[in-house]
Amino acid sequence: MHVNPQLRFFLSGQTKPLEPDSKRWNLPLPVKREITGIKEDQNSSLSVTYGDYFEATGAFIKKNNYEVMLTALSCINEDIRLEQINKINIYLEKHGPFYHPSKIEAVTENSAIPFVLNVAVSKIGIECIHKEYFTLKKLGSEFSSSFIPAVYGQDDFIGRDNLQIGLFLGEWFEGYSEFHISKDPSDGKEKILVWDNLNGNFFISADKGTEIYRQASMIMTSFYNVHSFEQIFPWHHASGDFVVKQIGDSLDLKLITARQYSSLFQTKVQIKDQGLIFEGLFMFLVVLSIRMRLDRIDGTGDIVWADNLSIEGTIKGFREGIKIKTKARVIPYNFIDKFKIYLHSISENELFELSKAIVNSFNQSAPDIPVICRNLVKHSSELFHAVKNL
User: Which residue of 200, 217, 229, 375 could cross-link 314, Cys pair, CB 3.0 to 4.6 Å?
Assistant: First the structure.
């Protein structure tokens, strides 16, 4: 007689399962409002308990005889039948402004195969989770890229009092960690700190910091569509959108979220319309260079501005992203050379005026704005000299 896998619920870092008769089960989930500045709706995470959360995740996993889990296993070439899964462990990892993600482990006799389960409990979070699932699915089908997680299924769960919870299952990047700018107590300088939960947090060198910005910029550029002006946006280092893994002496970066993929303009253009294509690409580069420098100190503190090593990394990564498109024959082989000519026609003052206009188009109530404005003149000059070496 077949017995279904045992579902067990955990809080991150704990080895004892959370049971329905525990005090925590009926406590409300915490929420980070200070990051978004958005008022919560009536379906607030304040009204959602740990029990509601785990009941929704359990129902999602068990639906249609564990269909989503078996689909995910088949997508990663794991020939595992339901009867071979002994346990499914669900670890609530953290509480973000929109999502409360869990790590899911399908435990067999010989392995524990991880996945990520993104969970939204507020109205705005559920709207975001629906968009993100379809965005990741679209990008995964249109780009041959391992930079973003694959997704395997999504659904909404209706609980007590018609409480709605949104969920989707995706690829887990094992061994990858968040990173944020932090002050190194050894010398008082701001550096990138990798949040390695297994081996302990560690600061990286300036060269490795440049490498992080290079890879992040390469990833964002590789997804930019030069004809439709579509790009992954919004994104922010403070939200932990990128994660990093140290492999020997090297670093490897992944983008774990893509909330939206939208266009700067309403119309697509042909490659012969190079003036508009170059203008759109240049605007993309300016925005990329600004946003690449923004973070929150220690992930949740004040907005902080990265040093000019980020500019070097951004330019290198941007160039590599364009080369990826050239190799994929999305753009002509001589595209980058012609774009260089376009860049050299722009004066330093024109670059600053464009940067100012772009920043004025941002949400002026965002906490990033004062920091950007304080640094914009210097940043524009640094970017101007960097693009001359593109």
Answer: 217
pLDDT for res 266: 61
Count CB atoms within 10 A of the CB of residue 331. Answer: 21
Q: Residue ranges of the domains in the chain?
A: 6-171, 179-387
Global pTM?
A: 0.91
Question: CA–CA separation, 20 vs 304, rounded Å?
Answer: 42
Measured distance CA(158)–CA(56) in Å, rounded: 8
Among the four given CATH numbers 3.40.50.10350, 2.40.160.40, 3.30.200.20, 1.10.10.60, the one describing domain 6-171: 3.30.200.20
Distance of alpha carbon 15 from alpha carbon 17, whole angstroms: 6
Q: Does residue 365 surpass a pLDDT of 60?
A: yes
Of the candidates 214, 299, 277, the one whose C-alpha atom is nearest the C-alpha of residue 250 is 214
Residues 6+ apart with CB under 8 A from 177: 194, 195, 196, 197, 243, 244, 245
- State the Cα–Cα distance between residues 355 and 350, nearest whole angstrom: 8
Of the ranges 80-89, 216-225, 262-271, 283-292, which one carries the lowest mean pLDDT score? 262-271
Preceding amide of 234 cis, omega within 30: yes
